[in-house]
Amino acid sequence: MATSTASRALNGHGGLAPATRAAVEEAAAKLNFQPSALARSLRTQQTFTVGFVVPDVSSPFYAAALKGAQGRLEQAGYGVMLLDASLDVDRELAALETLLSHQVDGLLVASTGMPRAVFDGAVGTATTPAIFFDGVVEGTGDGAVTLDNEGGISLLVDHLVEHGHERIALLAGSQRESAGAARLRAFIAAMAAHGMSPGDRHVKVCAWEIADGRRAGLELLDDPEPATAVLASSAELALGFMSAAMTRGTRLPEDVALVAFDDPYFGDLLEPSLTAVAYDPRLIGATAADLLVEAMRSETEAREVRVPVTLVRRRSCGCHPEVSQ
Q1: Which end of the chain is more exposed for a tag (fewer CB within 10 A), N or C?
Q2: Is residue 60 within a helix (H) or strand (E), and if so which, with residue range?
Q3: pLDDT per residue as tens digits for the range 32-65
Q4: Which is nearest to 274 in space by CA: 300, 312, 218, 305?
Q5: pTM of structure
């Protein structure tokens, strides 16, 4: 039997007699035949794999985003190669170069703040579609999926103002990354909308780590004129502030209110339970994967999709349990 005939039978192509197809399938089963992915990629010039680069693979956010993306990609026939940048631009660059050397068909990237020139130097000449999610390199790539950072920060500031707070502090995330910078800008704008301007001492730029949130939280609590409310730009920074408050014997929310951008899966189990902006990180990954599949299969214009957020009221801001969600 010709090789082409066997190939047509195993790949479900038409034009074969039922007896011929059955004979091929029976022989393949007896021999435990498995199609060669390498041969397929040589024939089609595709590897049917997608590179997935994240700043911190241990983060629940990126783990959930990966699950969302992987489900959509598998449905489209693609596997995933995951690499961790460890919150380091050089490691992010090395990850991209590794994935491109493996000839992935596309890239999903949550950038740690890589300069555009560096990204374009690594990826621009490879003609490999790239979609950003969460951490964006502005002005390049084939699309992006971001959270509604501005809307989420406004919800939190508005809610604290409803509770009567005027001195509101911000634990701002890294300003090297697009999400951290967007949340700081949104905080200043939201405060200005209420006729308030946060002082420099009430804005603390932090690494996205619990330890740095604790350090900055201690500085806020030791201020001679401390803020009456704190907005943390991530769940990790909120946990850091809660640790600082425990160290200083500060009561939440009686002495200082706390809200966060990011609702961790354990937010309602904390003491006090954490008021936060919530969203579905799996939706972020799935949406980014959809954009990438479109970009890999046809030339499309780059577009940005913004994922909505909602306010979850709990006790850390002073809300009563009966109105919490």
Answers
A1: N
A2: helix 60-75
A3: 655 544 444 444 457 999 999 999 999 999 999 9
A4: 312
A5: 0.83
